[in-house]
Amino acid sequence: MTVKILIVTGDAAESLEVLYPYQRLREEGYEVHIAAPARKQLRFVVHDFEPGFDTYTEKPGYTWPADLAFSEVEPSQYAAVVIPGGRAPEYLRNDAELRKILKSFFDADKPVAQICHGPLLTAAVGGLDGRHVTAYPALELDMQAAGATFQDTEAVVDGTLISSRAWPDHPGWMREFLKVLRAKSPAT
């Protein structure tokens, strides 16, 4: 039986932070499902850095279908969860179904990969208290308020929690996530 990985996201997620792990994990031999508030065509965004801007800019990105709604997710069927960033986590953290899903991954000590603004979701379920994490650097105070020790580095591994700052750090993030994932739930 193929090992399943869950990606939880929604509209305005960063395109690269959804599609890179989706493709990389499939390449590794995992079955990957994307869950969102509803089964629909999701609209992702592209965040980039431009001279003269104090923060990133946002442009329309790819569209991609959600495989299932959060209400349809059975967490016990999945070996790990990936939490992309972008603006999606800002509103997804208010979704009670998603909070139950994420809490179950922490309760079972399953691998959780989070990037950019994704830690806003794990903070919403108390998953960062006492942990070491990284996130988009503007979230340093949010991470500290959630009880985490923030490290401004490419990837941070704290047990089964693997975090990264943003899409430029994908190689380090996926390298560390796959080490943990292969040890806990090899693809074959």
From TrEMBL:
Annotated DJ-1/PfpI domain residues: 4-179
PROSITE patterns attached to this UniProt entry: PEPTIDASE_C56_PFPI
Top-level taxon of the source organism: Bacteria
Similarity comment: family membership: Belongs to the peptidase C56 family.
PANTHER family: DJ-1 PROTEIN, DJ-1_THIJ_PFPI FAMILY PROTEIN
Protein name stated in the entry: DJ-1/PfpI family protein
Native source species: Streptomyces lavendulocolor
